Amino acid sequence: MRTSRKNKVKPFYRYMQRKLVLLFLIGFMVLFGLSVVLFTIAGNDVEYKQIVLNQQSYESRDIAFERGEILDRNGTVLAGNERVYNLILDPKIILSDDRKYTETTLNALTECYGYDRAELQKILDEQPGSSYVRFEKQMSEERKELFDTYEAEFNENQAKTGGKQKIAGVWFEEEYRRIYPYDNLASQVIGFTSSDGKDGRMGLEAYYNDVLNGVNGREYGYFDDDSTRQREIEPAKNGYTLVSTIDLYVQQVCQKYVDKYVNEVGCKDVGVIVMNPQNAEILAMAMKSSYNLNDPSDLSGYCTPEELAALENNEEERTLKMNEMWKNHCISDTFEPGSTAKTFTIGAALEEGKITGNEAYPCGGSLWVGGHEIHCHNELGHGTLTVTQTLMSSCNVGLMYIAKATTAEVFSRYQEIFGFGQLTGIDLPNEASASGLLYTAENMDPTSLATNSFGQNYNVTMIQIAAAYASVLNGGNYYEPRLVRQIIDENGAVIENTSKVLVRKTLSTSTCEFLKNALFQTVEGGTGQKAAIPGYRMGGKTGTAEKLPRDEDTFIVSFVADIPADYPEVFIYVAIDEPQVEKQSDSSQATELCRNILKEILPYLNIYPTEDIPEDETEAPEENPDGEEPQEGEEDGEEEAPNPITIIDNNEEYNNGGFSGEKPRHDEEEPGEGQDPEGDGQQDGQPPAQEGQPPEGDRQNPSWDDIPTGNQPPGGQPSGNENPSGNEDPSGSEANAGPDQDPGQNPEDGQTPEE
Ligand SMILES: [Zn+2]
């Protein structure tokens, strides 16, 4: 058996061997041939693509990605998408099969949408070979369904009755339209996109454009041998969603009171920032000129009808106006901070051991510095005040004493530590740094140091002040202020946590505790009393900055507040530019606005009163028990008196507005005649300073030059009441060899609206 089997196998094996060799040769030749073809095709990319395109001429189209949403911190959609449809005509199909579909299809289109039949016919005549003519853009779902229903019913009916007619060659291309459910709300923060929803133009939409955008997919369609439509789909990759730090409700409350103020009182501009100081997350950022994100080119809410008419044929001016409207006042405009900055002056001195906090300083109403009498806003003088009382009463003289002890070098270093003159790193485009609007240690002469000590003669942005305050309130951590806390994908999976970026330490915990207490005392018994909300332990500080030119009596009034004072969970900063009231320097305008907002948002944020509320005290105290806090209409109150002092500033541009973008202010020109060469102008409603040196016998108040540097003994009086050297050159023009101009960010650059 074995042998015979062996014999049979042998011839079969040989046969197979020959057959395999043959097959191999054939296979090799086929492969070789194919590779030649492939090589040829690959060598001519254009030709290859042409072949492919012809093969799938039926359809090959993009599948639009869905741009990521922008949510508020609780998941409410602030910027979302609506699915819309473009109506596409395929003349090639409409005209195919001996024009079997032409009449019925044109009928359907005109009946559903009232299109002009002649117009449709023209397209068929002119582009008979085309497969893609976009006839109507961004139709709603309902509008699209009109046709879908008509087509389905017609074709079904034909099939039932055995009719040969058919509607064909019309299809709908899907895309997304960006929608903003809250129209004007937080418009400068959210920003908007180009009309195709893929190019962020302002705000978060611009800053996070790449994150929000996805990648289009592709659909390939073709007919198989049975003329059945087949599809292959490469799905789109949708963009990531931003979970912002904005709280819709808090934002709405802020905007409500801002709008109310603008309508009832009026002002040039106003900004409100609400922040969690523990992590620098921004809960709300509101300002005057909000615009409708669903129609960002509409200037009607921003310009008067007359202004609009003038812009009609002036595209350039129109673009400028729109950029102005879109600008985020809280991060792009700079201004003198005024007394809200006094907290940082004291902080720097304490931190460096230049003062202990136990000192006391005498205020006689003014102090002579560099040949100029610089006044306190209380012309009569505050008497002797402790460091805390100096902040409580916002005493300029006390601050000048503290700054002298601090030295220009340390003061300047702490301006940097607190982030002034630098970008905060907030996640928004067009942030201004104001770096050119600060002195350096080298060019900060005594007068500049003195005026800087109470927040004058340098510029900041609102967000810089807010971020610096947050660090004081949270124990010394300077975090980048944040508007987005998380980036998530369409399924809600976290891609990135973006909040709480620690930049540096500003102050030690003990210094922060001292300042927090001083701020608390300021609301308890100082200039911040009007902001008090019964039952709450709250810190706060007023600020009144006179704008340039100083003799125009225009002011920016501001207020910062933190609650609860011991461990602040909310920080609010309100700044009103040129309130349209008789007395612009009345900081109660800002205090009131701040208080209105806080009263509504605190319970919502689960921050409740911790102190007993006296029965008769449902409102803020109307009287200032210690006479420090001015009430409306009082001439001699804190933060009140107008300040007609002449301030040096030769820069015309800057003179035109302290709140209107970055302009150089410490230019190197010699001061003109009659101008104050020191730039030691007053703010906080100080009474006028005397020019130059007073006659010997007239000197009432001490001079900076007589202040001993270093620590003052508690309750001690600095030596004073003597004239400064009468020989001093009052011009001190080197003081004005100021900082370089900041090339800065011009938020008005370049943005144009998309049609
Ligand atoms: Zn004073």
Explain this structure to me?
It is a single chain. The chain is α+β, with helices and mostly antiparallel strands and 755 residues long. The chain folds into two domains: 59-244, Penicillin-binding protein 2a (Domain 2), CATH 3.90.1310; 329-736, 3-Layer(aba) Sandwich (Beta-lactamase), CATH 3.40.710. The protein is 33% helix and 17% strand. The chain has 23 helices and 23 strands. Strands 2, 3, 4, 5, 8, 18 and 19 form a seven-stranded mixed sheet that branches. A hairpin with a 2-residue loop joins strand 13 (366-369) and strand 14. Helix 15 (342-351) runs antiparallel to helix 21 (509-525). The longest helix has 42 residues, at 2-43. It is elongated and about 115 Å long. The model is unreliable at 1-9, 36-57, 620-698 and 709-755 (pLDDT under 50). The structure holds zinc ion. The site of zinc ion (ZN) has 7 residues, from helix 17.
